[in-house]
């Protein structure tokens, strides 16, 4: 019993000690800085949070390459890439506001928890003032929430779910990448022109939020064309074997398969669908067709022959002939020896847009940056004239509809751009039902 | 009979001092930032709880992450519905995780050994899948459950418009950090860390009481030979079930604390690798010892945070002083063991520990203590609370 007394006293003492330690805190910190991680006079640290392991490691590696290139260009090394074509000319190759750009990296592992842990470590330990990157909507939403709470800016990487700038939008978060609604709006006219208006569509959907928002968007767009949705089947993420989901399609009366998959899931499901002979079939007197709403070159490489003639949409493609895209492909190619993916492009652009916003605002304070980015119109970043809409921090720009190339000339030349859907056609109201339910809130400078 | 009382008190005091000094001790290693220190404390609690089941009864649960996840979800729901105060959140976390453990334990404990492990693993994977997609309205699926501006939070009064609130302990913001310069180091004193640390101390103290209690002795007897106990007419089920529930409540507390430090609950928290991690922590530190699990948890969390950060470029910079070819090839090999390959390092260390130090790092420390020839103060390190050593000495007494 005596021991329990002793321990209790110990606990009490500790409590007192903790109390003392706790009594002081907040005003120390808030007095020191006006915002989280204010940079010193000579350098500023950015945090690149990309998947370095797991299913999206390929995308992550490409994103990191793009960020390293962006840092070089911001610091005045290399050929300047898209800084030369960017419509805003305030960046002069001397870093950001005269401070040299440095960076730290973290591994999101494509898991919300791990991504938040690595982002927190970059913010708390390394003093990163901005977090960017990621290759999954789940991670983007999670890290965006964290950055809002921590008071730093989040420039999302590859995230395609409507939710990122829909119901989970945050004032400190910005998305350059397009979203599922835009994919659907861009694809619908092309599908109508090529496949007619009386198709029966069958959806296979990755069973998580991104898959659902894309399924919802595509189904709504195709149904407004007059298509009939036969069935929507959810498949577990990373299923590997999709044969049990593909067999029922044969007898469903559907003549079009829509694959709401991404990454390895898409590679596997598409390959198996082709192996099952779906594309050689005739249903309702029409050729069976497959559509992959979200395409990426890295996925096309994985699926090989099977992507030929299949339609999809993409944010950007290296074969674009405008001056900005060419400049980016050139400097990326010189650095690494192959063309950049769309993930690399959006990340590079996000890094530059952040730097530019700070430079224009003349301040690293997140609230000043938010103000500079909201409603910002720019050009010369490879997507034509683009608007960062203030209502939801989503970029509005042209969307590319692409098709698997029939005769690729080399291993990177897998997709051809069949249509550039103008921005007006993919623009929606901020309170569109697919995006409703969230609030942007106000910017949080932290500290 | 249950170990030396004085040494237990000494251990407790020492433990409290070390825990309070962590921000200072961790700073030189680049580990002194709030997120990581909070992990030390929280996963320490998780591992202590796991050890109560595994270390004492020998039942190897492969599904403890489910309780961690349930705790997190409960806490975040409390934040969303009731209040940003952490106390109701933690209370609900512990209760719900305990109920969850009662159900899973009731079924799983009908079997022992590998069948028990597989059953718990199955339940955990089931929970994970449920959280990931089926129960999306409750768990928000893959994206994870987060706070929203339009949550009711009925007990909280006015809030800052447009800003998400952060968890508080009666006005003390969990995120509040005071930077203090000590010996040129930036020491970060974080409210969240000290809050978690207080729970760590409490958890440690309760675990110590359990280890030293007749209940604990019964659990050790279950580990030693359950059949013999059954033959003597003892019904072991209530004891093992109690241990399972207690350990589930520890996990729930850890999960709740995770949510208090960072209000998000994701399904990945429940995936089987997360369950495996706590097994590694416990065995690496020393299963069945009091301090072992905490040490194991800290080592693994530290290695995860640090090793995974070194990418190929960093490694190449280390060896750039070597001649071109040699430096590159060494860097090539080393790079496999850091960055995303840090699990490889963890696996190697784990193998070495299990092979040469079956008692974990605590046994290593004890052996070093032995080599230093401190026989006079017999067992300063023995008193770290190994049940093996403690058991021996009690029989001697």
TrEMBL record, chain A:
Top-level lineage group: Bacteria
A UniProt-annotated Pfam family: Peripla_BP_6
InterPro entries in the record: BCAA_transport (IPR051010), Leu-bd (IPR028081), Peripla_BP_I (IPR028082), TAT_signal (IPR006311)
PROSITE patterns: TAT
Keywords, comma-separated and alphabetical: Amino-acid transport, Signal, Transport
N-terminal signal peptide: 1-23
Record-annotated Leucine-binding protein domain positions: 44-405
Gene Ontology biological-process entries: amino acid transport
Family label: Belongs to the leucine-binding protein family.
Protein name in the entry: ABC-type branched-chain amino acid transport system, substrate-binding protein
UniProtKB/TrEMBL annotation, chain B:
Keywords on record: Cell membrane, Membrane, Transmembrane, Transmembrane helix
GO cellular component: plasma membrane
A GO molecular-function annotation: branched-chain amino acid transmembrane transporter activity
Transmembrane stretches, start-end: 36-54, 85-107, 191-211, 238-258, 278-303, 341-362
Localization per Swiss-Prot or TrEMBL: Cell membrane
Main localization (coarse): membrane
Entry-linked InterPro entries: ABC_transp_permease, LivM-like
Keyword Transmembrane attributed: yes
Lineage, uppermost ranks: Bacteria, Pseudomonadati, Pseudomonadota, Alphaproteobacteria, Rhodobacterales
Nuclease listed as a keyword: no
Membrane topology value: Multi-pass membrane protein
Name of the protein in its database record: ABC-type branched-chain amino acid transport system, permease component
């Amino acid at each position: 019993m005596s021991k329990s007394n002793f321990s209790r006293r110990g606990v009490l003492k500790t409590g007192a000690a903790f109390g003392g330690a706790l009594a002081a805190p907040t005003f120390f910190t808030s007095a020191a800085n006006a915002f989280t991680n204010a940079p010193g006079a000579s350098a500023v640290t950015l945090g690149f949070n990309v998947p370095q392991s797991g299913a999206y490691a390929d995308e992550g590696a490409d994103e990191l390459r793009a960020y390293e290139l962006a840092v070089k260009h911001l610091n005045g090394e290399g050929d300047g890439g898209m800084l030369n074509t960017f419509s805003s000319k305030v960046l002069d190759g001397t870093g950001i506001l005269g401070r040299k750009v440095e960076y730290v990296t973290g591994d999101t592992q494509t898991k919300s928890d791990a991504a938040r842990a690595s982002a927190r470590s970059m913010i708390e330990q390394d003093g990163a003032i901005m977090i960017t990157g990621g290759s999954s909507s789940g991670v983007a939403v999670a890290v965006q929430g964290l950055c809002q709470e921590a008071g730093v800016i989040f420039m999302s990487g590859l995230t395609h779910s409507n939710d990122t700038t829909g119901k989970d939008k945050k004032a400190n978060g910005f998305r350059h990448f397009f979203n599922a609604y835009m994919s659907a709006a861009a694809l619908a006219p092309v599908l109508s022109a090529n496949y007619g208006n009386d198709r029966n569509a069958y959806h296979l959907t990755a069973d998580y939020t991104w898959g659902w928002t894309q399924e919802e968007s595509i189904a709504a767009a195709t149904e407004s064309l007059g298509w009939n949705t036969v069935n929507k089947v959810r498949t577990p993420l990373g299923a590997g074997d999709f044969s049990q989901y593909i067999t029922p399609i044969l007898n469903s009366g559907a003549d079009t398969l829509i694959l709401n998959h991404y990454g390895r899931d898409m590679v596997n499901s598409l390959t198996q669908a082709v192996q099952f002979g779906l594309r050689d079939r005739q249903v309702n007197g029409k050729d069976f067709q497959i559509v992959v709403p979200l395409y990426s070159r890295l996925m096309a490489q994985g699926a090989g022959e099977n992507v030929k003639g299949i339609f999809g949409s993409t944010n950007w493609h290296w074969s674009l002939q405008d001056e900005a895209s060419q400049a980016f492909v050139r400097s990326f190619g010189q650095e690494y020896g192959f063309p950049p993916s769309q993930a690399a492009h959006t990340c590079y652009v996000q890094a530059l847009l952040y730097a530019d916003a700070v430079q224009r605002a003349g301040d690293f304070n997140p609230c000043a940056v938010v103000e500079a980015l909201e409603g910002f119109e720019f050009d010369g970043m490879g997507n034509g004239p683009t608007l960062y809409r203030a209502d939801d921090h989503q970029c509005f720009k042209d969307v590319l509809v692409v098709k698997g190339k029939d005769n690729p000339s080399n291993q990177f030349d897998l997709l051809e751009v069949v249509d550039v859907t103008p921005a007006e056609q993919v623009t929606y109201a901020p309170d569109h039902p697919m995006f409703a339910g969230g609030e942007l809130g106000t910017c949080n400078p932290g500290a | 009979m249950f170990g030396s009382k004085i040494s237990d008190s000494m251990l407790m005091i020492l433990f409290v001092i070390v825990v309070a000094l962590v921000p200072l001790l961790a700073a030189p290693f680049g580990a002194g930032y709030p997120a990581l220190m909070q992990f030390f404390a929280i996963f320490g609690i998780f591992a202590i709880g796991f050890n109560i089941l595994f270390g004492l009864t020998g039942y190897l649960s492969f599904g403890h992450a489910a309780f961690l996840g349930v705790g997190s979800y409960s806490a975040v729901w409390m934040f969303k519905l009731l209040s940003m105060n952490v106390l109701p959140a933690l209370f609900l976390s512990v209760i719900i995780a305990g109920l969850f453990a009662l159900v899973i334990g009731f079924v799983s404990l009908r079997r022992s050994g590998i069948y028990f492990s597989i059953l718990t693993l199955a339940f955990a994977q089931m929970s994970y899948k449920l959280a990931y997609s089926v129960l999306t309205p409750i768990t928000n699926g893959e994206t994870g459950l987060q706070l929203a501006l339009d949550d009711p939070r009925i007990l909280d009064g006015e809030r800052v418009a447009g800003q998400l609130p952060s968890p508080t302990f009666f006005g003390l913001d969990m995120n509040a950090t005071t930077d203090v310069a000590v010996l040129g180091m930036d020491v970060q004193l974080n409210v969240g860390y000290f809050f978690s640390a207080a729970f760590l101390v409490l958890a440690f103290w309760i675990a110590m009481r359990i280890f030293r209690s007749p209940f604990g002795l019964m659990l050790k007897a279950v580990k030693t030979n359950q059949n013999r106990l059954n033959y003597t007419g003892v019904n072991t089920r209530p004891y093992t079930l109690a241990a399972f529930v207690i350990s589930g409540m520890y996990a729930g507390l850890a999960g709740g604390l995770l949510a208090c430090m960072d209000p998000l609950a994701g399904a990945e928290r429940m995936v089987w690798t997360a369950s495996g991690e706590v097994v590694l922590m416990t065995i690496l530190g020393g299963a069945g010892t009091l301090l072992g699990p905490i040490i194991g948890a800290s080592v693994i969390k530290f290695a995860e945070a640090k090793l995974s950060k070194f990418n190929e470029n960093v490694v190449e910079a280390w060896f750039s002083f070597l001649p071109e070819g040699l430096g590159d090839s060494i860097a090539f090999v080393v790079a496999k063991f850091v960055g995303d390959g840090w699990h490889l390092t963890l696996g190697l260390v784990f193998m070495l520990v299990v092979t040469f130090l079956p008692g974990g790092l605590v046994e290593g420390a004890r052996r070093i203590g032995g080599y230093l020839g401190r026989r006079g103060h017999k067992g300063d390190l023995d008193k770290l609370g190994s049940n093996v050593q403690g058991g021996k000495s009690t029989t001697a007494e």
